[in-house]
Each structure stands twice: as structure tokens, then as C-alpha cells.
Fold:
Amino acid sequence: MQDRPLCTTMPYLHISIALLLSLNIPTTSATRDSISAGQALTIGDKLVSKNGRYALGFFEADSNWYLGIWFNSVPKFTQAWVANRDDPIKNPTSLQLIISHDANLVITNSSTHSIIWSTQTKIKRNNTTAILLNSGNFILRNASNSSDILWQSFDHLTDTYFPGAKLGWDKITGQNRRLVSRKNSISPATGFYCEELDPSGVNQFLLTPLDSFQPYWASGAWNGKYFSSIPEMSENNANNSFVDNAKEKYYMSGTVGEETAVTHHYLDVSGQYKTFIWLEGSQDWVPIYAQPKAQCDVYAVCGPFTICNDEALAHCTCMQGFNIRSPEDWILDDRTGGCLRNTPIDCITNGSASSSTDKFYSMTCVSLSQTAQKIETAKSASDCAQACLDNCSCSAYSFNSSRCSIWHNDLLNLRKRQCSSEAPNSNGETIYLRLASKDMQSLEKHRSWLLIAVATGTIVAALGLFAFILLLVIWRNKIKNSSHIPNSAQYSNGIVAFRYIDLQRATKNFSEKLGGGGFGSVFKGFLDGSTAIAVKRLDCAHQGEKQFRAEVSTIGIIQQINLVKLIGFCCEDAKKLLVYEHMPNGSLDNHLFQSHTTVLRWSTRYQIALGVARGLAYLHEN
Ligand SMILES: *[C@@H]1O[C@H](CO)[C@@H](O)[C@H](O)[C@H]1NC(C)=O
Ligand SMILES: *[C@@H]1O[C@H](CO)[C@@H](O)[C@H](O)[C@H]1NC(C)=O
Ligand SMILES: *[C@@H]1O[C@H](CO)[C@@H](O)[C@H](O)[C@H]1NC(C)=O
Ligand SMILES: *[C@@H]1O[C@H](CO)[C@@H](O)[C@H](O)[C@H]1NC(C)=O
Ligand SMILES: *[C@@H]1O[C@H](CO)[C@@H](O)[C@H](O)[C@H]1NC(C)=O
Ligand SMILES: *[C@@H]1O[C@H](CO)[C@@H](O)[C@H](O)[C@H]1NC(C)=O
Ligand SMILES: *[C@@H]1O[C@H](CO)[C@@H](O)[C@H](O)[C@H]1NC(C)=O
Ligand SMILES: *[C@@H]1O[C@H](CO)[C@@H](O)[C@H](O)[C@H]1NC(C)=O
Ligand SMILES: *[C@@H]1O[C@H](CO)[C@@H](O)[C@H](O)[C@H]1NC(C)=O
Structure:
């Protein structure tokens, strides 16, 4: 199996960022937080909660208009709730939000008086007010009794969880309060994944595709303090509660309004439940939590006939002989459509199927989905292949330990495993993908092309090529007497896996030592001759490789201005290195304890103490 080169997928990233930026963000400011009978909210207006954290108004996304709530205190437009996610408004002319004659909150067309969206609550008397609360809850209440809430947005969450909202069931009305992800990175419409209470009755939450109950993550049962698979919940002192009484069963998190950090908890398009925190310093959302941790754990996240690779920057790639079904959706982070065959398989439905001309393409180092049908009668690999050819719906087979498995129709949840080419079955299996012989031929042609390119020519030509390469290498080393990272793979969180030889070169064979610590020594180096780095060489590398990599990806998601950023790592046999950004001013203890350096001013010391505290607080919170 061959990976697609990264360069073919990279442009998508840029496009999706550009599209996000093109969202229309209302700008006019009004400082009211409520609407009463007779008042209207139009395009350009907004309600702002008293604490300034949330705003409500009309916004444009994906060429449609929506009524929703966003983070008012965050300059980067971030939606948190949408009233009409599945009833988008095409034309914004005469659009307004009012309290109608029946006391409901409605979106109407002021010129035709037609109702586009309504809270649709049965209200006996005629006097109500709508208020955006500090918690982000938009409520419709009795104007003369503030505890008489008739409708609230917390009962109709979209993809974002607000601390203080109930997630679970109302046993009387049967309402299921759950989170449903967005369609893609720009449209707030209903998407593919859902987080809800376990319908089987266990006191836990499940992540599952919306249209098929295939839970891919469970929170573990509530034990009175936290969900058993999330023990880290017990460490934050938020007021979490799980309530199960005659009226309702729900989970509720957090103390409302008290928290100072702006956080965004939501079920992402990717099927992961994520928490981001807004950092004023970097003016950006920074991820601090994701469940499940591995993207490829999400059911069918790449769609049919794809390979999901957690280690790659672009997680999803099409299998050989397939192409992206819907590039428009793919660009917007919705990969669930998967890939389509370039050529339909050859299937004779009424005659002798065994005359099928299809071929099999082998993919090594993959982990297979569990949906296979076992063919007990097939005793050899060729029997197994024939069993697959005999059935028109069969798309792949695998033959392992004398057991034949075949897969029907869409192949889902295939994952790339790291495994060496010498022992392809050490960690992963081999699957044989059914392809039309035409596609197989073009793959083989592609392969033999490479062979021909290498084998063509005489020894003279080969020598010429060799000389040319040699010259190229010498020339390159001459103009760039520093390291370059050609073979390093970039991890999904931006961490680079370096080769040892490159780090050795970058640090001039570990010549400039910056300092040493309990775990190893730190050396200075340069990437591409300019970017300064600090390379930490771990002395006691008793840790297993898997554990090391797991730790690296954990450290890698930490991004805080007061913490040194991990750029990458190297893990080759016993050689384990960590690559950090280089701090030009050196270690703080030099400045504090050594008399020969200039004495720090008290204001500087104060700023350092604050920075350390912020860094510690960030680490502690997570
Ligand atoms: C409101 O009605 C006018 C006149 O029919 C129409 O031009 C406009 O597009 C409508 N606006 C909305 C939001 O439906
Ligand atoms: C609002 O509350 C008042 C006093 O409790 C009550 O008389 C009235 O019927 C309520 N109105 C609505 C719309 O429920
Ligand atoms: C509510 O008040 C409006 C006038 O403000 C009136 O036209 C309407 O009939 C009233 N509706 C009810 C249900 O009392
Ligand atoms: C609605 O309630 C407000 C607040 O109690 C009150 O001032 C107003 O008179 C009421 N309006 C009607 C039409 O009942
Ligand atoms: C206000 O509404 C609450 C909740 O519906 C109700 O329990 C309370 O009795 C109401 N107060 C008055 C003064 O009617
Ligand atoms: C925690 O939340 C519960 C339920 O909302 C509330 O009764 C309790 O007073 C809260 N405790 C603290 C310490 O905030
Ligand atoms: C079945 O196959 C035969 C040839 O093998 C063909 O002539 C016939 O039209 C096919 N029937 C159907 C219903 O496809
Ligand atoms: C192909 O496999 C499917 C699924 O097991 C089965 O329902 C179907 O009958 C098979 N078709 C043939 C022709 O064997
Ligand atoms: C072969 O299949 C068995 C069970 O079907 C599984 O336990 C084993 O790990 C597989 N072997 C390889 C090398 O993948």
C-alpha cells in the first residue's frame, strides 16, 4: 500500500482555513441582553449577556443565515448555539427576531409576517421576555416572574456544551438533551456524530454516529464523583453532578458564571469531544482535551474505502484504485463520504461468477474492522480469494492462520498500523482489496514504470546517474551546511519526528551543551541553518518506544505561552531525543543564583513569577 504524498492534501488545509475566515461576523454593538414584546432584533443587532461573554444574533455561514450564540469576548468568531441549524435562511431581507402575539419567540419576515422559526411553546398568558443569561442560556420567561422559564436554549443544545446545562433525558416529556456535531467546518447543520446518555440504562455517555448505533467511545459509569474512564475529572473541583430521579436523568458540569477562563466544549466534526481554551496571549483557541484521543478511533470518520492514519497530518486517504467521493465535503473536514471506485468491479450476477476478471491488491500493516464474514470452507488463500470473487458484494478478503475472512460492500474503519517491512504481520494484518483488473493494471503499470525507470540504461547511464546524485549531494551540502529534515514525518499536532542523523547534524554532533538535568543533557542546534532549537538527549532510555511516543504526543498538545514548546522528537532504538524551541536567555536559575549576570529588576521578577504561575496553572488545569 502506498500513502498519498502529503502535498496533495495540504492545499485542503489552507482552503478550509480561508473559508472559516470568510464567515460574516456581525459587528454593531448594542448592550442590551433581552427582548420584550414590541422589540425586535434585526441583522447587525446583538444581545450580549451581562458578563459580556456571550452574544446572540443573526450570522452568516455557508451562504445562509442563522440565529445563534457566539463567544462575544473572543475576537475569532466561534459559534456555540444555533436556533435554526436545519432551517437555514437563504435571504436575509426583512429578517427579525421578535416576541409574537402568542408570546413565543419567533424569527419572522417583517414584510410578509411569515414565521420562519418559533420556540413553539404553549403559553397561556401573553406577557414574556427573552434574555441571554451569563451562562449562555437564552431563555424565554414570564415577564412578571423570573423563575417561570417557558423555553430555554439549554434544552436544545447543538454541538456545544455550556457549563450548567443538563445533558440527558427529561423522563416526562421524553426529550433527549444531547450534542450533535456540525455538518462540516463551516455549516452548523446537523452532522454525523452524537454524544448522549447510554440508552441501555448505564449511567454513562456514549459517542456514536447519529444514524447507526455504533458507540466508539464510552465515558464509563458515573461513580458518584466522575465517569470511570475519565479519572482526571476528579482533579478539577468543578461542581459536577449526575442526577437520576423520577422526572429526569442528566449530567451537569461546572459552576455557572464563576469560571474565569473562556472555554469551548464541543463535539467536533471529526467525532471527537474537544475542549479548547481561549488564550489572550496567543489570541487563539488552544486544545486541552479530546476524547477519544486518537482520531482513527472515531467510527467511519474517513468513510468507506479509506485508510485512517493517526500518525499522518492528513488522517484520511483513499485506498488504491479509489478516489474521493465528494471533494467539496472533504475540503470542509467532512470525510464521511469516503471514496469511490475508479472502475466498477466485474460482477456477473446470473451466470458463473467465478469468471470474474477482478484482481486483488494487497495492503499490509493495517488493522481490520471486525465486520468480516468467516468462510469456514476456505482452507487456502486461493480458496479465500475465490470465495470473495464468487460474491458480488465482496470487496476484500484476508487469510490469516488458516482462517478466511471476507468483507462485504463498504469497507469501513481500516487503520494504518506502524509495522516494519521485514515483519509485516508483527503489528497489523494484510488485507486483499478487490479491484477491477483495469485499475489493477494501471497500478501495476505505475509500479513497473518505476522499475523501468530504474533499470533502463546501461551501466554507463547508471554510473552517470550516480555521479549526478553525488554531485547534487556535494552541492547541497555546500550551500546548506546545516540540517534539513527530508524524511521526518509531521505528526497531527504539529510535532515532527526527526531522524537521529538530522539532529546530530543540527547540533554539530552534540557539541554545544546548554545544560544538563536529571534526565539528560541539552544541546543547542539549528534547523535549516536558522531556527534555533534545544535538543534534550535522554540518558536513561529504559522507556519503551510506544510509551515514549505516547508521552510525546501528550506533551505535544500543550501550547501555552509560558511553557516551552515541544517541536519534535527522535526515537531510534535506544536513542531518544526531545526537540524544544530554544530560549535565547538561557535557564532562569542562571539569572537568579549567579552573581556575574546582571541582577534582575523586581518588576521583571514579578513578571517571571506571574508567567511561571500561569504555566503551572495551565498544566494543573489539564
Ligand atoms: C421577506 O419577504 C420579502 C418579500 O416577499 C422577500 O423579498 C424576502 O426575501 C423575505 N425574507 C426572508 C428572510 O424570507
Ligand atoms: C406569569 O406569572 C404571573 C404571576 O405568577 C401569572 O399570573 C401569569 O399567568 C404568568 N404568565 C405566563 C405567560 O405564564
Ligand atoms: C396577546 O396580546 C395581543 C396584543 O398585545 C393580542 O392581540 C393577543 O390576542 C393576545 N393573545 C393572547 C393569547 O392573549
Ligand atoms: C407584562 O409584564 C410587565 C412586567 O411585569 C408589566 O410591566 C407589563 O405591564 C405587563 N404587560 C402586560 C400587557 O400584561
Ligand atoms: C413563579 O414561577 C415559579 C415557577 O413556575 C412558580 O413556582 C412560582 O410560584 C411563581 N411565582 C409567582 C409569584 O407566581
Ligand atoms: C453544586 O451543584 C448542586 C446542583 O446544582 C448545588 O445544589 C450545590 O449547591 C452546588 N455546590 C457548590 C459547592 O457549588
Ligand atoms: C444472464 O446472463 C446471460 C449470459 O450469461 C445473459 O444472456 C442474460 O441476459 C443475463 N440475464 C440477466 C437477467 O441479466
Ligand atoms: C453474498 O454475501 C451476502 C452477505 O453474506 C449474502 O447475503 C449473499 O447471499 C451472497 N451472495 C451470493 C451470490 O452468494
Ligand atoms: C490471525 O487471526 C487471529 C484470530 O482470527 C488473531 O488472533 C491473530 O492475531 C491474527 N494473526 C495475525 C498475524 O494478525
User: Anything to note?
Assistant: Confidence is low (pLDDT under 50) at residues 1-29, 471-492. The chain has nine helices and 41 strands. The first helix runs from residue 6 to 21.
